[in-house]
Amino acid sequence: MTDKLNILHLEDDDNDSELVLNELESAGFKFEYKRVDNESDFTYSLIHSSYDIIFSDFSLPTYNGLKALERSMSIRPEVPFILVSGTLGEDAAVESMKKGATDYVLKNKLYKLLPTINRALVEAKEKKLRESAENRYGILIESARDIIFTISTGGLIISLNNAFNEITGLNREDWIGKEFSGLIHPDDRDLALFRFNSVKEGSRSESYEMRFINSSGEYFYGEILTAYIDRGNINGEILGIVRDVTERRNAELIILNSLKEKEILLKEIHHRVKNNLQIIISLINMQSSEINDTSVLNSFREIQNRVVSMSLIHQSFYQSNSLSEIDFSHYIKRLAENLFRIFGIKKDRIELFIDTAGINISIDTAIPLGLLINEVFSNSLKHGFEVGSSGRMFIELRKSEGDYILRIGDNGCGLPAGIQPGKTNSLGMTLIKMLCDQIDGEITLNNENGTVYYVKFASKSYRDRLDGIIH
To answer: Residue 404: which H helix or E strand, with range?
Structure first.
C-alpha cells in the first residue's frame, strides 16, 4: 500500500485495538489511527475529521455497532464501515449489511481484515466515481429540452426531468408515482401499452409518435424512444425520451396540403393543355375538310397526328397518380390505336407487338419520345408495307445500366439505301433526329429486315432535372 489511510476505530478494549493495529502493520498498511470508545467522541470525530475507513465493535457498554452505523451513514455515508466484532450472529450481520455496513470481520479471524479493507476501498472508489457520473448526468438530464423519464415495470412514473414542466405546463411532483397512461390521449393508450410491454419483454426499441396531455387539457404530439434498463436482481426500469414534435407535424401538414393543392393545379394544367390541343386538332380537321389537294391533305393529317400524340401525353399525365412520370406502355397502346384508326389499318393485317411493361417516363422525355414514336409508326403505316400485304410492327423499351434502350420498327419492305436520320432532307427523318437530340439520345437505323430504329438515351427523371438545376 502506498497511500496512507486515515482510520477511525470505535473500540472499548485496548487489547482488541492492539490486535487490529498489529494486523494492519503486518499487512504493510501505512495509516493514521484514532480509537474512540463512546458515542460522543465517535460523533465528534465523524463531524470534525475525515477518514478513509471506519472500524466498529458491535457491542460496547454504552453504545453498539448498529447505532454507530446509523450515525456514520448520516454523517459520512461515503466512508466504508466495517464491523470488527468478537461475537456477531448471522441475523445481526444481515441486519447490519441491510443498513449500509460495507462488511464485517470476526476478531478471531483478523487475517481476513486485509482483503476486506482492500475490497471496501475499491467499492468506495467505484461508488464515488459512479455518484460523480450520476451527478454530471443529472445536470445534463435536467437541462435537456426533451422530456426524460423512467417508469417502473408496473407502469408507475419514477422520475421526470424539468422539461416535463416546461413542455406540458404540469408539475412533475404531482405525477411521480402515478400511472404513465394518465398522460396519454385515450385513443393512443393501446399503442402506448403495447410498446411499453414490448420494451419490457426485451424487444428492440424504435421511435414512435403519440399524443400527450398538457396543462390546458389539450394534447401535443411527442416522438418517443424507450429502452429497458436491467438492474440485476432488482426490478428493472423503462428509460425514455419524449420530444415535442407538434410544430413539425403542423409544418408537415401544411406542406402536404400545399402539395395536394399543387398536384390538383398541375393536373388541371395538363387537362387544359389537353383540351387546347383537342381544339387545335378540331380546327385542323375542319380546315382539312375544305382541302382537295391530296398532298396538302396528307400534310394536314401528319400535323394532326403529331398534335394528337402530344394531347395523349397530357391526358396520360392528367390520369396518372404520379405527376412526374407516366406508365409509358399505356400511352403507346393508345397512340398506336389512334394511328391504326386514322390510317384505316386493321390489326389482323398489321400485328403490333408492344413490350414496355413497367417503364415510367417523365414528361420532359415523354413528349419528344412520343412524337418520335409517332413519326416512326406513321412512316411504317404509310410506306413500310405494300398494298394488301401483311406484316408486323413492334416497339420495345427497356432499361440497361442507367439508360433506356428503345427498339422500334417493322418487318416490311424497308427504306431506300442511304436514308439515315439527320442525313436525309425528308421532314420525317429530320424530325426523328431532332426529337432524338431533345432527349440526348443516340439513334441508329437498320434496313436489313424491314426498318428498325435503335435509340439509346439516359434514364433521367423530372426529379433528376430539378436536382441538376438546384445543384
So the answer is: strand 403-410
Per-residue pLDDT of 296-333, as tens digits, reads: 887 887 788 778 877 877 777 666 666 567 777 878 88
450 by DSSP, 3-state: which?
coil
Tell me the β-bridge partners of 405. Answer: 398, 456
CA gap 31, 255 in Å, rounded: 73
> Whose grid coordinates read 455515508?
77
Amino acid at 66: L
Dmax over Cα atoms in the chain, in whole Å? Answer: 139
Q: Which fold has domain 251-470?
A: Heat Shock Protein 90 (3.30.565)
Element housing 325 (H / E): strand 325-327
- Per-residue pLDDT at 467 exceeds 70: no
CB-CB contact of 336 with 352 (8 Å): yes
- Count CA atoms closer than 13 A to 417's CA, side-chain side: 0
DSSP string, 178-221: SBGGGGB-GGGHHHHHHHHHHHHTTPPP--EEEEEE-TTS-EEE
Let me know if domain 144-244 sits in CATH 3.30.2270.10: no
CA–CA gap between residue 149 and residue 142 (Å, rounded)? 11
Ramachandran area for residue 28 (φ above 0: left; ψ -120 to 50: alpha; else beta): left
Name the CATH superfamily housing domain 4-140. Response regulator (3.40.50.2300)
Q: Over the stretch 60-108, which tens digit does the pLDDT of each residue have?
A: 888 988 999 999 999 998 899 999 988 777 788 888 888 889 998 988 8
